[in-house]
TrEMBL record:
GO MF terms, alphabetically ordered: transmembrane transporter activity
Compartment(s): Cell membrane
Membrane topology annotation: Multi-pass membrane protein
Keyword Calcium: no
PROSITE patterns: MFS, SUGAR_TRANSPORT_1
UniProt KW keywords: Cell membrane, Membrane, Transmembrane, Transmembrane helix, Transport
Pfam families in UniProt: MFS_1, Sugar_tr
Lineage, uppermost ranks: Bacteria, Pseudomonadati, Pseudomonadota, Alphaproteobacteria, Hyphomicrobiales
InterPro entries given in the database record: MFS, MFS_dom, MFS_sugar_transport-like, MFS_trans_sf, Sugar_transporter_CS
Annotated Major facilitator superfamily (MFS) profile domain residues: 15-424
UniProt protein name: Inner membrane metabolite transport protein YhjE
Gene Ontology CC: one annotated term: plasma membrane
Length: 427
């Protein structure tokens, strides 16, 4: 199904750099909102009231982008499968960047009333639309240029954009926490990471405009006209691959957003940690995610995609039992330990996905198939994860959040169990 065509080393390096840099910028944009949702979106954009209610409102706006992401995946996937990967990736980056910068310019609830959260929701939808077209194209740029036996390794480069973007986002908020008073941060300081995105997007556009089209896509166009409606082909002819790929990603999303967005809100609002302290915890923990991605990518090329991802979902299932005793303890070694374990598990599952999801679909509909699958999983595993976790804490305590994580891991394990091994397809 997926064949590999070697490219000159210089060209391969350029493409891998572009897939990494662009994805890192997109993840930075996405994560600064996630961090802001846990720290400041509630009091800035919603009426005064109970902090818990404001936090739930902020997490609800966080979920909007995940609803938009499959729409963006279908839209950009359509053009990515018909006109090419390069132009589509440039457009997705621009939409994401403009939406992010404009969020930093919005008025607050105190000055504009309900117009402020309404505009915030629209721009958050724009973030999700752009992000929905990003990952699939970046993964294809890497994987469709990989030499034989190296697809999973090449596929980790867009995946590495996730921890790098997260570290950039958290470092920005950490610096602001040390440099500004809480009043200044809530008044105007939170806007700076959003406005800084304009510079990063400019860098990303410069890199991506120098891309060349992937050889596999060129070969597919040379053989036949592109699909008129790639999404229809994916839905009607690749239903099983789409469903299994979607459910396979659920655990990955759940453990990540429970270990970051939910944990940040819980740690600062319930456990009483200062914002700088908990942001520092998460910056340390995300290094374990960055470690897990290349290790699992290497292992997936050596042992296969299924055993690597299944081992990660089993580990995540075990973490469900540890979440309450460790994160709920309030003890900093246990809290930090859980964050490190959770993000390592996420990286271990996430690494092979750069190759696995594209390998489930033929070249002619691969952009649409991989993107839709990846982003549908975001709705199931991530969109409501912080909101549901916060609600579960209110209803039954932190142990219920662990049960939620365990269920998500079990779903992904079963999906991968039913999935074919894709490592040698097309070789």
């Amino acid at each position: 199904m997926l064949q590999t065509t070697p490219t000159p080393p210089v060209s391969a390096r350029r493409i891998l750099t572009a897939s990494f840099v662009g994805t890192a910028i997109e993840f930075y944009d996405f994560y600064i909102y996630a961090t802001a949702a846990a720290l400041v979106i509630g009091p800035v954009f919603f009426p005064p009231g109970e902090p818990g209610v404001q936090l739930l409102s902020a997490f609800a706006t966080f979920a909007i982008a995940f609803v938009a992401r499959p729409i963006g995946a279908a839209l950009f996937g359509h053009f990515g499968d018909r006109i090419g990967r390069k132009a589509t990736l440039v457009a997705s980056l621009m939409i994401m960047g403009v939406s992010t910068v404009l969020i930093g310019c919005l008025p607050t609830y105190a000055t504009a009333g309900w117009l402020a959260p309404a505009a915030l929701c629209i721009l958050r939808f724009g973030q999700g639309l752009g992000f929905g077209g990003e990952w699939g194209g970046a993964a294809l740029l890497a994987v469709e240029n990989a030499p034989p036996g190296k697809r999973a390794w090449y596929g980790i480069f867009p995946q590495l954009g996730a921890p790098v973007g997260f570290i950039l986002a958290n470092t920005c908020f950490l610096a602001l926490s040390f440099g500004l008073s809480p009043e200044s941060f809530q008044s105007w300081g939170w806007r700076l990471p959003f406005l800084a995105s304009a510079v990063l997007v400019g860098v990303g556009l410069y890199v991506r405009l120098k891309l060349t089209e992937t050889p596999l896509f060129k070969a597919a166009l040379a053989k036949a006209e592109p699909e008129k409606v790639p999404l229809a082909t994916v839905v009607t002819q690749h239903t099983r691959a789409t469903l299994l790929g979607t459910f396979a990603m659920v655990a990955c999303y759940a453990v990540f957003y429970l270990s970051t967005v939910f944990a940040l809100g819980y740690g600062t609002a319930t456990l009483g940690y200062s914002r700088p302290a908990f942001l520092l915890f998460e910056c340390v923990a995300v290094c374990f995610m960055a470690l897990g991605i290349p290790l699992s990518g290497w292992a997936a090329d050596r042992f296969g995609r299924r055993p690597v991802v299944m081992s990660g979902t089993l580990f995540t299932l075990c973490l469900g039992f540890l979440l309450g005793p460790m994160l709920g303890s309030g003890s900093w070694p246990l809290v930090l330990g859980f964050l490190c374990l959770g993000l390592f598990a996420m990286g271990w599952i996430f690494g092979p996905m750069g190759a696995l999801l594209p390998e489930l679909f033929p070249t002619r509909v691969r952009y649409t198939g991989a993107s839709v699958t990846y982003n549908l999983a975001g709705i199931l595993g991530a969109s409501a994860a912080p909101y549901l976790a916060q609600s579960l804490v209110s209803l039954g305590g932190i142990a219920w959040v662990g049960a939620y994580l365990g269920i998500a891991a079990a779903i992904s394990f079963l999906a991968v169990l039913l999935m074919p091994e894709t490592m040698r397809q097309g070789v």
